[in-house]
């Protein structure tokens, strides 16, 4: 039986906040920096999304159904594509028509909602899945949570929603001696199959490809194909999960990353026994080898592969608690403007900017943050959140007052029926007197 190579790409862009000061609270509710959002989307579309989609289409035309990939695209990214780069959505729709691309479900806003005790996680996933059907004609069967965040409890929840499989990281502290190159199951509901990221081989592209100090630089397609072949001598599948922005944005075109990807399938087909499959196909082909016990949430971030990049200090935890404390009220009000702002405020990026821990790749993360310090990120976010919470509470009060003003006659159907007769009788009496 052929070995499986599963390529998955994440595409996410947060709706970035403008600088929102304390004195703006209660005075203005335009939280987002439209200029920065537009310019960022246009830049990355031209560097990454459009040329890489064109490259993948060329590979599909060349190899047909032998070449397959998968994507998850956050709702916030799709909304910004629609506003600032609609041709990006059109290019993904063309890829969808080939039948060689699987679109995965995720949280609509690239949210941390799965770590809260609210129903927001399921609401966002369903909203995102509906968007995938609307835009790409696919009902997702595979879920990828924000930054591959996963635990036994999250997996059980995902299984209950009807998904067949889920992606997460092959974290060493979870796997122990086991290999990420097999299919596993959720320990609480074995119907949910798990595909695990091969971190070393994925990070060779995302982090090390252009690093001249790396002892394996330069990385060529034939060398990488050999590594893939060697990695599965005693296993079945290699899952390469990465940010799509790796191509052209994080690893610039000058590094040769596009040429590498264009030539890689040729070496895969000519020197290995791999076949390209999507996640949905991979879990149908391979039988799970064991349940995977993950009592505490893991992710694909940092060396620790945990959630401390988002919820590792008091600033982050306070912002997270305040954000999800207001969720039941936002859901009850169901106001379109509040819903949109609430969704955008959930993007995990806002919390990542508040991190204070150090990373092995700290220089890169400092580069992508628009703030000078984590504290500055916290203050800006909490100013926005304070105004948003005040709006929610004001709307709730207004609706309660409106409800209290309903008269007993309006509440009681019987009184409403009698009231017109009394009024008519009075009018008739006055007419007779005249």
Task: Give the SSE layout.
Elements: E1 3-11, H1 34-63, E2 69-73, H2 75-84, H3 86-97, E3 101-103, H4 120-136, E4 142-144, H5 152-160, E5 165-169, H6 172-175, E6 183-186, E7 193-197, H7 199-206, H8 221-231, E8 237-243, H9 257-271, E9 274-276, H10 279-285, E10 290-292, H11 308-311, H12 314-325, H13 327-333, H14 336-345, H15 348-352, H16 362-368, H17 374-404, H18 408-411, H19 413-433
Parallel strand pairs: 1-2, 1-8, 1-9, 2-3, 4-5, 5-7, 6-10
Antiparallel strand pairs: 6-7
Helix pairs in contact: 1-2, 1-3, 1-9, 2-3, 8-9, 12-17, 14-17
Structural write-up:
The chain has 434 residues and is α/β, with parallel strands linked by helices. It folds into two domains: 3-292, 7-stranded beta/alpha barrel (Alpha-Beta Barrel), CATH 3.20.110.20; 314-410. Strands 1, 2, 3, 8 and 9 form a five-stranded parallel beta sheet that branches. Helix 1 crosses helix 2. Helix 1 (34-63) links the parallel strand 1 and strand 2 (69-73). It has helices at 34-63, 75-84, 86-97, 120-136, 152-160, 172-175, 199-206, 221-231, 257-271, 279-285, 308-311, 314-325, 327-333, 336-345, 348-352, 362-368, 374-404, 408-411, 413-433, and strands at residues 3-11, 69-73, 101-103, 142-144, 165-169, 183-186, 193-197, 237-243, 274-276, 290-292. The relative contact order is 0.14. The N and C termini lie far apart (102 Å). The longest helix is centred in the last third of the chain and has 31 residues, at 374-404. Residues 402-434 are annotated as: Disordered. Residues 7-290 form the Glycoside hydrolase family 57 N-terminal domain. This is Alpha-amylase.
């Amino acid at each position: 039986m052929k070995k499986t190579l599963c390529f998955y790409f994440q595409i996410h862009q947060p709706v970035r906040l403008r600088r929102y000061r304390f004195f703006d609270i209660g005075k203005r509710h335009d939280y987002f920096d439209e200029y920065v959002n537009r310019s960022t989307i246009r830049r990355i579309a031209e560097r990454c999304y459009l040329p890489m989609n064109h490259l993948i289409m060329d590979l599909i035309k060349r190899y047909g159904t032998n070449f397959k990939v998968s994507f998850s695209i956050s709702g916030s990214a799709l909304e910004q594509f629609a506003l600032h780069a609609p041709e990006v959505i059109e290019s993904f729709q063309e890829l969808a028509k080939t039948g060689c691309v699987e679109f995965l479900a995720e949280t609509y806003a690239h949210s941390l909602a799965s770590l809260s005790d609210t129903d927001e996680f399921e609401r966002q996933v369903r909203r995102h899945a509906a968007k995938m059907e609307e835009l790409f004609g696919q009902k997702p069967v595979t879920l990828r949570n924000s930054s591959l965040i996963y635990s036994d409890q999250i997996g059980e929840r995902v299984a209950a929603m009807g998904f067949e499989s889920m992606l997460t990281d092959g974290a060493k502290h979870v796997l122990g001696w086991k290999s990420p190159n097999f299919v596993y199951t959720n320990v609480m509901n074995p119907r949910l199959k798990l595909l695990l990221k091969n971190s070393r081989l994925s990070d060779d592209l995302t982090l090390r490809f252009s690093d001249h100090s790396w002892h394996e630089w330069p990385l060529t397609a034939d060398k990488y194909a050999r590594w893939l072949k060697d990695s599965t001598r005693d296993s079945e599948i290699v899952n390469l999960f990465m940010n799509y922005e790796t191509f052209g944005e994080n690893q610039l075109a000058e590094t040769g990353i596009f040429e590498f990807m264009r030539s890689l399938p040729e070496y895969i087909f000519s020197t290995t026994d791999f076949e390209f499959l999507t996640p949905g196909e991979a879990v149908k082909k391979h039988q799970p080898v064991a349940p995977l016990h993950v009592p505490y949430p893991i992710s694909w971030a940092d060396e620790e592969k945990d959630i401390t990049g988002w919820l590792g200090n008091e600033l982050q935890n306070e912002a997270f608690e305040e954000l999800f404390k207001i969720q039941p009220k936002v859901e009850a009000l169901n106001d379109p403007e509040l819903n949109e702002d609430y969704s955008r405020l959930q993007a995990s990026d806002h919390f990542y900017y508040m991190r204070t821990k150090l990373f092995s790749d700290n220089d890169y993360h400092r580069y992508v943050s628009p703030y000078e310090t984590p504290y500055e990120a916290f203050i800006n976010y909490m100013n926005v959140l304070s105004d948003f919470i005040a709006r929610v509470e004001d709307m709730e009060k207004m609706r309660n007052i409106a409800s209290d003003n309903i008269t007993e006659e309006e509440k009681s159907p019987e009184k409403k029926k009698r009231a017109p007769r009394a009024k008519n009788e009075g009018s008739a009496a006055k007419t007779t007197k005249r």
